[in-house]
UniProtKB/TrEMBL annotation:
<dbReference type="InterPro" id="IPR051081">
    <property type="entry name" value="HTH_MetalResp_TranReg"/>
</dbReference>
<keyword id="KW-0804">Transcription</keyword>
<feature type="domain" description="HTH arsR-type">
    <location>
        <begin position="1"/>
        <end position="87"/>
    </location>
</feature>
<dbReference type="InterPro" id="IPR036388">
    <property type="entry name" value="WH-like_DNA-bd_sf"/>
</dbReference>
<dbReference type="Pfam" id="PF01022">
    <property type="entry name" value="HTH_5"/>
</dbReference>
<dbReference type="GO" id="GO:0003677">
    <property type="term" value="F:DNA binding"/>
</dbReference>
<protein>
    <recommendedName>
        <fullName>HTH arsR-type domain-containing protein</fullName>
    </recommendedName>
</protein>
<keyword id="KW-0805">Transcription regulation</keyword>
<dbReference type="GO" id="GO:0003700">
    <property type="term" value="F:DNA-binding transcription factor activity"/>
</dbReference>
<dbReference type="InterPro" id="IPR036390">
    <property type="entry name" value="WH_DNA-bd_sf"/>
</dbReference>
<keyword id="KW-0238">DNA-binding</keyword>
<dbReference type="InterPro" id="IPR001845">
    <property type="entry name" value="HTH_ArsR_DNA-bd_dom"/>
</dbReference>
<dbReference type="InterPro" id="IPR011991">
    <property type="entry name" value="ArsR-like_HTH"/>
</dbReference>
């Protein structure tokens, strides 16, 4: 449980979770949404994965990330993001991305 709280302590990691709320994204897609280096984003993703909040899957040369849906911490984080002025728009963007992909859009 300590790893979960440490992972959720970072605003960057909470934003990543908000982006992954409804959509699976590649590491590059996630990194493009932040003004920090790809290695820094990779480290944040590793912390989230070690805490059991996200899982990764390598496909070809890309690594895709998605939330672990049945994780209590993700449920709580989702609730907080709904009322958070920063997280709410990011969750909306995630839902839009998921809808676009469901309609055959590129991602």
């Amino acid at each position: 449980m300590q790893r979960v709280f440490e992972a959720l302590a970072s605003p960057v990691r909470r934003k990543i979770l908000a982006y992954l709320a409804h959509a699976e994204l590649s590491a590059g897609d996630i990194a493009s949404r932040f003004e920090m280096s790809k290695p820094s984003i990779s480290q944040h993703l590793s912390i989230l994965e070690n805490a059991g909040l996200v899982v990764s899957e390598k496909r070809g040369q890309f690594v895709f990330y998605r939330q672990v849906e049945d994780n209590l911490a993700n449920t709580l984080a989702g609730f907080v993001q709904e009322v958070c002025p920063v997280g709410r728009p990011l969750r909306r963007e995630s839902a839009t991305l998921a809808g676009d992909r469901g309609k055959g859009g590129e991602g």
